[in-house]
C-alpha cells in the first residue's frame, strides 16, 4: 500500500512539474528587431577598410535578405553588415540573447568560415565591440534558428579579445551586425586552419531577440545612418566628404589590387599601369584607353595631393597629440602609484 501511495505522489509531482515547465516556456517571447525589407536596415562592412579586397552585397528577395560576396585572404579576410546606430538604445535586458533565422546556401563548407554576431552597447568605445561566433548548418533548404546568448558575448578589438572590458550591457543595444571571416575570436590573431576563400551566400529571414517575457512589439527604434553624421563636430562634417573622396572604397580597392599585382610580378607602378593601358586599348580601342587613363591619372593626382595635405595638416598632428596625451596620462598614473600609502 505504501509503495502504491508513493508511486501516485511521484506521478502527481511529475505532472505538476511538466505543467509548470510548459507554462514557463509559453511565456517566453521572440521579438523581431527589423521588418522587411531587411537590407534597408544595414550597411556593408568589408575588409577594404584595412586594405583587403573582399567584397559583398545585400539584397532583398521577397520576405528574406540575401548576403553574398567573395572572401579573399589577402590583407583582410572578412565581409559583414551592420545596422546604423539605433534612434535610441534598445533595452534587451528582459531577453536571453539574439536569434538569427538564417540558412547558408552557397556550398557545403559552412564550417570552413567563421560566423560572428557583432553588437555594440557603447558608442564611445570606438573599435571595441562585442562578438560571439556561431555555427551554421550546411545547405538543406531549411531555415535554422541560431541563438547567441547575451552572456556569451566577448569584448573584442578586431578578432582579439579584450580581457579587461566590462560585461556586455544588454539594456543599451546600439548596433547589431554579422561578420563572415577567416579570423576566430581569440587572444591572438588566430585564423581558421581550413578557411575556404571565394564565393559565399547566406540568407536571413529574421534577426531578433529570444527568451523574453514579453514581445517588444512596435517598440523597436529604426536604425539611422544619419545620426552619426548629425552628432559629428562641424569640423568633421566639413572634412568628412574630403576623407571619403581620398579614402573611398574604390580608391582603397584599386590600391589593394595594385599592391597584389606588384607583389606577384615584382614590377613597379609604370609597368603595371602599362599592362592595364594595353589591355584597355586592346578591348575598347586606343582612344578609349587614352581618355580613361587620362581621367584616372588626373583624379589620382588630385587625390594624392589632397591626401598628403590632410595627413600633414590634420592626421599627423592629431596622432602626435594623442600619443603625447597618452604618455602624460601614463606618467600621471605612475606618479600616483609611487605616492606613499
Automatic annotation (TrEMBL):
Gene Ontology MF annotations: unfolded protein binding
TM annotation in the entry: none
Give all residue intervals belonging to the NADH:ubiquinone oxidoreductase intermediate-associated protein domain: 40-201
Q: Which InterPro entries match?
A: Galactose-bd-like_sf (IPR008979), NADH-UbQ_OxRdtase-assoc_prot30 (IPR013857), NDUFAF1 (IPR039131)
Q: Which UniProt keywords apply?
A: Signal
Biological processes, Gene Ontology terms: NADH dehydrogenase complex assembly
Task: Point out the signal peptide segment.
Answer: 1-19
Q: Which family does it belong to?
A: Belongs to the CIA30 family.
This protein is called NADH:ubiquinone oxidoreductase intermediate-associated protein 30 domain-containing protein
Q: Which organism is it from?
A: Triparma columacea
Amino acid at each position: 500500500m505504501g509503495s502504491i501511495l508513493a508511486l501516485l505522489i511521484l506521478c502527481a509531482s511529475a505532472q505538476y512539474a511538466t505543467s509548470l515547465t510548459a507554462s514557463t516556456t509559453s511565456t517566453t517571447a521572440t521579438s523581431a528587431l527589423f521588418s522587411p525589407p531587411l537590407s534597408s536596415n544595414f550597411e556593408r562592412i568589408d575588409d577594404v577598410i584595412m586594405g583587403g579586397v573582399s567584397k559583398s552585397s545585400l539584397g532583398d528577395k521577397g520576405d528574406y535578405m540575401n548576403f553574398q560576396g567573395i572572401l579573399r585572404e589577402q590583407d583582410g579576410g572578412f565581409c559583414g553588415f551592420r545596422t546604423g546606430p539605433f534612434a535610441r538604445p534598445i533595452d534587451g535586458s528582459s531577453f536571453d540573447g539574439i536569434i538569427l533565422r538564417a540558412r547558408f546556401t552557397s556550398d557545403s563548407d559552412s564550417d570552413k568560415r567563421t560566423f560572428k554576431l557583432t553588437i555594440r552597447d557603447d558608442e564611445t568605445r570606438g573599435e571595441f565591440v562585442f562578438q560571439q561566433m556561431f555555427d551554421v548548418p550546411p545547405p538543406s533548404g531549411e531555415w535554422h534558428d541560431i541563438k547567441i546568448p547575451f552572456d556569451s558575448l566577448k569584448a573584442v578589438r578586431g578578432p582579439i579579445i579584450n580581457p579587461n572590458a566590462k560585461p556586455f550591457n544588454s539594456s543599451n543595444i546600439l548596433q547589431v551586425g554579422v561578420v563572415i571571416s577567416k579570423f576566430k575570436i581569440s587572444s591572438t590573431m588566430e585564423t581558421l586552419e581550413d578557411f575556404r576563400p571565394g564565393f559565399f551566400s547566406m540568407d536571413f529571414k529574421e534577426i531578433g531577440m529570444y527568451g523574453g517575457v514579453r514581445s517588444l512589439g512596435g517598440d523597436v527604434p529604426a536604425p539611422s545612418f544619419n545620426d552619426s553624421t548629425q552628432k559629428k563636430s562641424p569640423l568633421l562634417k566639413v572634412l568628412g566628404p574630403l576623407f571619403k573622396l581620398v579614402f573611398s572604397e574604390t580608391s582603397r580597392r584599386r590600391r589593394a589590387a595594385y599592391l597584389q599585382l606588384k607583389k606577384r610580378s615584382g614590377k613597379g607602378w609604370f609597368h603595371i599601369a602599362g599592362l592595364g593601358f594595353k589591355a584597355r586599348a586592346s578591348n575598347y580601342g586606343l582612344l578609349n584607353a587614352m581618355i580613361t587613363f587620362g581621367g584616372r591619372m588626373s583624379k589620382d593626382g588630385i587625390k594624392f595631393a589632397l591626401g598628403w595635405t590632410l595627413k600633414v595638416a590634420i592626421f599627423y598632428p592629431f596622432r602626435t597629440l594623442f600619443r603625447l596625451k597618452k604618455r602624460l596620462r601614463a606618467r600621471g598614473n605612475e606618479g600616483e602609484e609611487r605616492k606613499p600609502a
